[in-house]
Amino acid sequence: MIEKREKWARLRMRTVAAIFALVFVVTAGRAFYLQVLQKERLVKLAEKQHQRVVALTPGRGAIFDQHNAPLAVSIEMDSCYAEVKHLENVPEAAGKLAPLLGYSAAELEAKLKGSRNFVWLGRRLAPEVAQKIRDLDLEGIGFVKETKRFYPNSEVAAHVIGFTGTDPGGLEGVEKKYDSTILGNTGFLVTQRDALGRDIDLQQAGEGKSGTKGNNVVLTLDKNVQYIAEKELAQAVVKNGAKGGIAVVMEPETGRVLAMANYPTFNPNSPFKYGPTTLRNHAISDSFEPGSTFKIFLVAAALENHAIRPNDSFNCENGVYNFAGRTIHDTHKYASLTVPQILKYSSNIGAAKIGSRLGAERLYAALTGFGFGEKSEIDLPGETGGLLRKQSKWYGIDLATISFGQGVTASALQIATAVSAVANGGNLMKPYLVDHIADDSGNVIKQFAPQVKRRVISPDTARKVAHMLEGVVNEGGTGTGAAVDGYRVAGKTGTAQKADGRSYSAKKRTASFVGFVPLENPKLTILVVVDEPTTSPYGGVVAAPAFSAIAQQALCYLKVPLDRSVKKKAEPVEEKKELQPAPEAAEGGTVEGSVAAGGEAGSMPNFRGMSMRQVLRIMEKRGLNVKLQGSGRAVEQSPPPGSRITTQDPVWVRFVPSA
Question: Where is the PASTA domain positioned along the sequence (predicted)?
Answer without folding.
Answer: 598-657
